[in-house]
Amino acid sequence: MKFRTFPNTDLSVSEVGFGLWTISTGWWGDYSEDEAITLLHQARDASINFFDTADTYKNGYGEELLQKAFGKNPTDVIYATKFGYDIYSDGANERRGQNELPQRYNADFLRYACEQSLLRLGIDSIPIWQVHNAHFDAVENDDLWDTLETLKSEGKIRHAALAVGPANGWLAEGIAAMRHRDIVSLQIIHNILEQHPGSDFFPDARANDVGLMVRVPHSSGMLEGHYTENTVFADNDHRRHRPKSWLINGVKKIETWKFLTVGGNQTLGQAALKFILSESSVTTTLPNIYNVEQMNEFAAASDLPDLTEDDLRKIAELEAINFGVEEEPMKMKGDPMSSLEAWEEKLKVTS
Questions:
Q1: CA dihedral angle for residue 82, residue 84, residue 88, residue 91, rounded to 10 degrees
Q2: First to last CA, the chain
Q3: Which among 246, 245, 242, 247 has a CA at the least distance from the CA of 229?
Q4: Domains and CATH numbers, the chain
Q5: Exposed / middle / buried, residue 152 (Cβ in 10 Å: 0-12, 13-18, 19+)
Q6: How many helices (H) and strands (E) does the chain have?
Q7: Where are the beta strands (DSSP E) in 136-293?
Q8: Which residues does residue 191 pair with via DSSP β-bridges, in sequence order?
Q9: CA–CA separation, 286 and 263 (whole Å)
Q10: Are 188 and 19 in contact (CB under 8 A)?
Q11: Is 85 helix (H, G, I), strand (E, B) or coil?
C-alpha cells in the first residue's frame, strides 16, 4: 500500500481508504455488527488506515462501529467523519428515508454534534471533520467557520473539511471553500464515467493545497465490471433507484476501456482506482467496499504500476465521445457558479 499526506498536515493515509457508507447504512445490503467489524479488521490487515464515516449513518452507527473495531484513541488508523445534519431532533428518523434532513450550523449545535461524534468514535480529537453535503449557505456562514476554528483551538478537531453533493451542493460550494476557507480536504465524486464536474476541482485543489478524497470511484459498482443489462439490485439497495438507462448505458461504456486489462495485470476495478490516483491533488480514494475479496482487490491496486500517458490519452478520447454511447447529457440547474461569483463580489466590497 502506498500512502499520501493531506497537504499541510501530518496525516499520512492509504491511497485506498474505506468509506463506512456501505456497511453501516443498509443501502448496500445488510451487515451484522460482527460482519461489519470483521471487514474493518480485514481492511486494516490490508494496510488500509483511513476510514470515512458520518454522524448521519444510522444516527452515528458508522462511528460506533469504528470504536468497536479499533478501540479508544487508536494510533494505527485515521478517521474522517461528517456533520451538519440535525439527527438529534424529535422525529429525525421518520423524516429520513431518501429525504434530506435539515442542516444546522449554530455554535451550540456544532459543539454538541462534535462531542457526540467524539464519544461514538472513542477519540479525543477528530482528525478531519467535514461539513456534510454543504449548501452554499454553509460555505459563506462566518459563524460556522469561526466555531470550527474554536473547536480546533480546543483540540476537539484537528482539521476542517468539506464533503460536497452532488444533489446537495457541488461545484460552486467546493471551489468557494477551497479558495476562501481553511480546509485540508474536499470530498467529491469522481470516476472514469462521471468526470464532470469532479475534474473541475483539480486546479483549485492544486492551487490551494487541498487534498481530495474521491468517493464513488467505481460509479456505484459499474466500473468493477460485474454488471450486465439484466442485473437486478435488492429492494434496499440504493442502485435500484437509478434509471434503467444508467445500467444499460454503463455496461456498454465499460466495454470500450477493457484495453486497460489486456494481459491480466490489473482488473477493471483496479484500473478505475489508478485512473483517479493519476491526479496529483487526490490524497485518497473511498471505494464502496462490501466484501473481503473485493476489498483486497482494491487495496492491491495501490502497488500496481501507474497508468501510462497513452492509457490516460485513450481514456480522455473515449470520454470526449461519451464512450461511444448516445444519451441525453446531464444538465445542471441554472448557473452552478453564480453563487460563488456573487459571494466573491461581496467579499471584494467588504475587504
A1: -110
A2: 46
A3: 247
A4: 3-350 (3.20.20.100)
A5: middle
A6: 14, 10
A7: 157-163, 185-189, 211-215, 282-286
A8: 194
A9: 27
A10: no
A11: strand
| Cell of residue 243, nine digits | 434509471
- pLDDT (0 to 100) of residue 95: 47
| Secondary structure (3-state) at 81 | strand
CA distances from 298 to 65, 154, 224, 303, 310 (A): 22, 37, 10, 10, 23
d(CA 170, CA 163): 9
Q: Give the integer Cα–Cα distance in Å for 170 and 190.
A: 12
Gap between the Cα atoms of 63 and 46, Å rounded: 21
List, in sequence order, every beta strand (DSSP E) within the chain: 3-5, 12-14, 18-19, 50-52, 78-83, 126-132, 157-163, 185-189, 211-215, 282-286
Sign of CA dihedral 304, 310, 311, 313: positive
C-alpha cell at 277: 490516483
Q: Are 214 and 190 in contact (CB under 8 A)?
A: yes
By DSSP bridging, strand 211-215 and strand 157-163 are: unpaired
Could you tell me the pLDDT band of residue 332, with boundaries at 50, 70 and 90? low
211 - beta bridge partners? 185
pLDDT over 90 (residue 144)? yes
List pLDDT tens digits, range 277-306: 999 999 999 999 999 999 999 999 999 999
In angstroms, the CA 320 to CA 316 distance is 6
- Name residues whose C-beta falls within 8 Å of residue 299's C-beta, 6 or more positions apart in sequence: 1, 14, 16, 43, 46, 47, 48
- Cis peptide bond prior to 102, omega within 30° of 0: no
Overall residue count recorded for the chain in this entry: 351
- Which phi and psi angles does 96 have, rounded to 5°? -70, -95
Paired with 126 in beta bridges are 157
